[in-house]
Every structure is written in structure tokens, then in C-alpha cells.
Amino acid sequence: MERTMVAARLHALHTPMTLDTIPVPKPRPNDVLVNVKACGIVPNMGNVINNWMTWFPHQPLPKFPAIFGLDPAGVVEEVGEAVINVKPGDRVYVSPLRSCGSCQACRSGHRSLCRYYTLNGYFSTSRDGQRIFDLHPYGGFSEYMTAPEYALVNIPDNLSFEQAGRFGYLGTSYGALKNAGAGPGQVGLIDGITGTLGVASTVLGLAMGLSRILGTGRDENLLKRVKALAPDRIEVMKLDDGSTGDWAKSLTGGEGVDFVISALGAKAPAATMQDSMKGVRRGGKVVVVGGVAEDLPVDVKWLMDEQVQLIGSNWFTAAQGQEMAEMVRTGTIDLSYLEHRRFPLAQVNEAISGLKDRDGGFSNYVVIP
Ligand SMILES: [Zn+2]
Q1: For residue 2, how far is its CA from the centre of ligand 1 (angstroms)?
Q2: For labelling alongside 220, which of 35, 110, 118, 211 has CA 20 to 30 A away?
Q3: Whether pTM exceeds 0.90
């Protein structure tokens, strides 16, 4: 008899997902079958489901009925015949980054530069991504999913599935810090430090040896909570309390910070980012991992004179995910700051729409299939 599973599926835009009973998929030769134990929800999921087709028609969604779910973690139950390094019983985080695997970018290890780059269970960044969705139709809002071996991160026993469901945000922040060249002795400015990417960047930046982290945000209580993570190494400033760029320079003897991580929200004015950029030192880096509401006017003469680099950063590699898992295993990073809000699969719609009430970057919304 065919085994079945329950999956939350979206049948049409502007309708709730429904719980459907469908066959458990068989992994193809290079795939594994994962029993999903937790799947993180990102605040943007509601937008993807309801508005993406209108806002970004060039970025495909999975075909309906679709199983969404970006950040799954679980236990490998079965492996395809060509799988070499993963075995049943392994605890894994499944990075949703899918790509063709054979283009020049993929073969050189830069899967996020592939023209097929697709975030499984979410949306594709590429017009060509529909083909990838057709090949990988299972997201994390399901009891089981298949995933290619290349996308797996082995997670240690001291990393809970709920914490692993946060790896998308953590990894995106880690990728940004790597692109910033973050390391011991440096000072970084994180714009939007109280948000999901901001808090994650702070925790990882401390672990990577930054001497000091400066951060900006709007919510005073959340700013206090971020500062409390490491009061001796973190300074915070409320946006609207003056120039963030001048503040960053004043705290670094006029020199400026080594890098800025711009983790602002999609509604933030470009002027906020423009101001903070001016707080970077000569030769410093500005890494964009959030977004702002409008085009950014950049003084390119200043960029040239100061030899500042403006860098776009997006997701992370499975290998970087493995580095984070190792940092958890050794106690180098502590994810106990995350406050989990767990929802059974039957409440996936409530979970997605309830995300507005979150406590900045401290709340972790997870669906437990
Ligand atoms: Zn490729």
C-alpha cells in the first residue's frame, strides 16, 4: 500500500492553505527523504503567497497546488542510490537553495549566482526558476519532503530542530558578514539591529571576534535587549536621534567602522542607509542584506575617493551552514536568545498571518508538521 503524508498546500492565491493527504515522495538517486520536524516561517512568507505574482511577476512561484515552507529541519529517513555522505537517522537542516548544479557558477561553488537559483518552498529569483520548482515540488510545510544531498547541513544534537528552522536568517546574516570580511578586532555597524537579520548578525559577529558592534533601530525596548547580549561590546542608537554616520565615526575616533551591514526593512527610507554608509572607514564595505523603499542615491565620487565597496548579499552556501552548525556544536554561538512560537501544521495559516506580532529578531515562528 502506498504511504501517505499530510502537507499544507496552497491551491489558489488569497485562499488559506489546506491540509491534504498525498503520497510520500520517493527520493531520486541524488535526493534524500526527510521527515520534517520543524520549519521556520519568515515574515515575508505572507507577501510571497499573496502579493508576489503582482509585485515581482518575473520571479516564479511553485505551481499550484504548492507546498511552501522555506526553512525545514528534520531527520533523514531514506536516501537515494547515488547519495554518498548522508545516511538514514542523520539530523539535518535543508537549505532551500536549489540551482542547476552544472553551469559555470554552480561548478565553481557559487550556486547563488546560477541563473536557475531558486529558494525551494518560497520563490525563485530567476525567470528560469520554474524548471527547478517542477523538479523540487516539496517544501517544509509537510510531514515529509525530498531534498538533494548538496542542500543538507548536518546539525549537532545540541541544536534543536526549532533553532535549525532559523538557519535561513542566521545563514543570510553569516553570508553578509563573510562578504563584509568580518573578523577579530573589527568594528561593524548594523543598521536595523533589532530585526531578524540584525540580531542574527549581532550574535554571529560577536562569535566571529568583532571588537565592537554598533547598531541602529527604532524600538527602544528591543535596542536594550540587543545591547544586553554583550553590554561591553555593543552600542545602540535610536534612528531619528541624529546622524548614524556621524555617530559611527564619533565612536571610532573619526575613522569610521570597518563595515556596515544594511539590514533595514523594505519600508525604510533610502536616506537612512545613505547616512549610515557615510560611517564606514576608507576602504570599508557596505553590505546590503535587507532593502529600502526606494532607489538609493549614491555619491560615486565619494565611493571612488574613499574606495568603499557596496556589496549585495543573498543567502549563503550549505558549507557556510555547516560552519554555523559547528559553531553551535562547540558553543561558539549561543542560540538561546530565540523564543520559539510553535504551531502545528493545522495552524500554518494563523502562524503566517500572526507574524506581525513578533518580538523583533528574538521571536522564532516555527511550524511543527
Ligand atoms: Zn547553475
Answers
A1: 34
A2: 211
A3: yes
Q: How confident is the model over 270-315, as pLDDT tens digits? A: 999 999 999 999 999 999 998 888 999 999 999 999 999 999 999 9
Q: Which domains does the chain have, with CATH numbers?
A: 4-166+338-368 (3.90.180.10), 173-312 (3.40.50.720)
Q: Helix, strand, or coil here: 72?
A: strand
Burial class (CB in 10 A: 0-12, 13-18, 19+), 65: middle
- How many angstroms separate the alpha carbon of residue 138 from the centre of ligand 1? 20
Rounded CA gap, 65 and 178, in Å?
37
CA 345 to the chain's CA centroid? 21
Distance (angstroms) between ligand 1 centre and the Cα of 255 equals 41
Task: Give me ligand 1 centre to Cα 112, in Å.
Answer: 8
Give me 233's grid cell.
Answer: 561590546
Produce one character per residue of 267-296: b if its CB has 16 or more CB atoms within 10 Å, e if not.
ebebebbbbbbbbbbeebbbbbbbebeeee
Could you give phi then psi for residue 178, rounded to 5 degrees?
-65, -45
- If you average pLDDT over residues 67-81, what whole number do you get? 97
C-alpha cell at 160: 534543536
Residue 356 pLDDT level (bands cut at 50, 70, 90): low
Q: How many other C-beta atoms can be found within 10 angstroms of the C-beta atom of residue 231?
A: 9
How far apart are the C-alpha atoms of 179 and 311, rounded to whole Å?
8
Length of the chain: 369
The confidence score (pLDDT) of residue 2 equals 87
Grid look-up 515529509 returns: 144
The percent of residues in the chain predicted with pLDDT above 70, rounded, is 99
CA distance 327 to 349: 33
- Is residue 161 scored above 70 in pLDDT? yes
Confidence of residue 126 (pLDDT cuts 50, 70, 90): confident
Q: Which three cell numbers stand for residue 331?
A: 558553543
- Ligand 1 center to residue 115 CA distance, Å? 6
